[in-house]
Amino acid sequence: MFNAHFIPLFVIIPLLGAFLVSLLGKYLKRAFVDIFSSLICFLLLAISFFGLITLRNSGTSVLAYKIGGWIPPFGICMVFDGLSAFMLLTVNLIAFFVCIFSLNYMEKYTDKPKFFTLFFLMLTGMNGLVVTGDLFNLFVFLEIASIASYALVAFGTEAEELEASFKYAIMGSVASSFIFLGIAFLYGFTSTLNMADMSRVLSTKPSTWLVPFVSVLFLMGFGLKAALVPFHAWLPDAHSSAPASISAMLSGVLIKTLGIYAMMRIFFNIFGMTSAYSSVLMFLGALSMIVAVILALSQWDLKRLLAYHSISQIGYVVLGIGLGTPLGILGGLFHLFNHSVFKSLLFLNSGAIDYSANTRDLKEMSGLKEKMPVTANTNLIASMSIAGIPPFNGFWSKLIIIFACLQKGYVGYGLVCVVGSILTLASFMKVQKYAFLGELKEKYKNLKEVPWAMKLSMISLAAICVLGGLLLLPSLKFFLNDAVNVLLEGRNYAGIVLGAASR
To answer: Is 28 exposed, middle or buried (0-12, 13-18, 19+ CB in 10 A)?
Structure first.
């Protein structure tokens, strides 16, 4: 189908970008590397918008690109539906602003071409994982993104970063092993790797032991990738040690793509959501929400504090999606998008402070608002958003999740959401007090605000935090509704995709 020919570009463009930057970067001026990298990210963002509009105007809920013209399940296909469109726009939006921020921020690190090579490889893996219709290729793209992220965590080459990267790589390899084993068992039973065909086979050839066993493997594997409690041990070290640009990508989109998205796609569209899966996901979501926010309260390292909040906020997403109701899934996906925006902004703020003040210790800071007004104000907006204060975007998604809990009769889970938000607010009031308010210390008298590219990224993300609630307007809500509908289709996804691929 002609309309589907744009889908491979999500993989081809960043992969080509990684190849060209690594090949030519050392021979070309730094300005060229900056412009070329920004252009690649802008192009991916533009194609994400184009794909969203094309899908809306196509008259169908799924677009399928058949690689080599082979019809699935015999050939590999790439699938673009409402959930793919939602995730690709989220990933490439954050990647664009992180890329702009990195133009100045990464100057203090050793080799910018190497950074952008790894950055584009990570983006290739994330985009490929979202569009693939094949379970083994999902694993391949997951590994591409993971290995690039291991290297990026260690990019500063200090002892702390290398140790965090090593721990991240070990835990990531364990997660990948669980996922690979699960895929192997499924392939042995169904004799297919196409996700839609696998779903069709499992619905006609039920197994009493296979799906529950593989579900546990996937829950551990993708739970580790998403850093849900109790699989979260690697995240605080990895996210706090990495350069701020990479922390923003890891917390903003990587853990959601490699963990949450893959888990949603498999549990809803291949296995079919059951009450048992729902109960487990809700429990893990609520546990992550409370445990991580309590651990965050005692942190004085700004980036480590933010890392624990990533685990906590992922809990809201998993709780909403785990409810399995239209309202719950809407709230979970909306919070996934909102968290990508405000958490990326918070990590970029921490990078701006580290760039100018050369510290991440809250006890070392004081009165920075006087010298860094843009950083201070955008941080305040992001802090209000993550705490769920109206009218910022985080308020609307948390409110929907709480209503969804009450609608299904889970008053306790709704209460956990409220308590989590109150503790989050307390944590970020501490950040505001120690970092930006109070009297400016003598050593910061000559402090300057960060360069324009870094400010542009922070202001843009802050604007999305303020205006994010507008996505609930009827004229814009299709962005979320189309993604929700894909998950609500459950196993019917198989027939829709195979039908689209056969045309």
So the answer is: middle
Nearest to 279 by CA among 402, 419, 179, 413: 413
Beta strands in 42-150 (DSSP E): 62-66, 77-81
pLDDT for 152-178, tens place per residue? 888 876 777 888 888 889 999 999 999
Question: Can you tell me the distance from the alpha carbon of 143 to that of 30, in angstroms, rounded to the nearest whole number?
Answer: 29
DSSP state of 468: G
Distance in angstroms (rounded) separating the CA atoms of residues 357 and 360: 8
- Rounded to 5 degrees, φ, ψ at 52 are -60, -45
Query: How much is the pTM?
Result: 0.92
Peptide bond into 326 cis (omega under 30): no
Which residue is it, tokens 């006890």? 363
Could you count the other beta carbons within 10 Å of the beta carbon of residue 95? 28
Q: Which residues contact 449 (CB under 8 A, 6 or more apart)?
A: 356, 371, 372, 373, 374, 375, 455
Q: Which residues have CB under 8 Å from 290's CB, separation 6+?
A: 312, 315, 416, 419, 420, 423
